[in-house]
Amino acid sequence: MDKKMHDKGLEVRKAVLGEAYVDNALKNVDDFNRPFQEMLNEYCWGTVWGREELPRKTRSMLNIAMIAILNRQHEFRAHLKGALTNGVSRDEIREILLQVAIYGGMPAAVDSFRIAREVFAEIDGKA
Hints:
mainly alpha, AhpD-like, 2 domains, 7 helices, about 0% strand, globular, 4CMD/NDH-1_regulator
C-alpha cells in the first residue's frame, strides 16, 4: 500500500462525503474488509479523486450519473450529499437525472429522483 496516496485519499474522501460518514464506514473495518477499505482510500479517493485534471464538482456530477444508472441507492445518497458539498446545485442534479432517464432508463431515474428529494428534505430539515 502506498501510505502517502492512502492518506491523500482519506483526506479527499472525508472532504467530499463528510468526516462522520467516513468515520462510520471505518469503524466497521475488520480483518475481512480492511484490504478493501485500504484499496478504496488509496485508488478510488487518492489516485483518481486526488487528480487535479477534473474539478471535484465535475467528478461528483459524473458519479451521480453513473451511480444512478447502476441503481446503487446507498452510494447514490452518499455521493449526492458529496455533490452538494462540491458545489453541484439542485438544478444541475435535476438535469443530470433527466439525462440519466434518457440514457440509463426510467426506473433508475425514478429511484434517483425519489432519493434526491429525500436528501434535499433532510438537508432542509423537513424529513
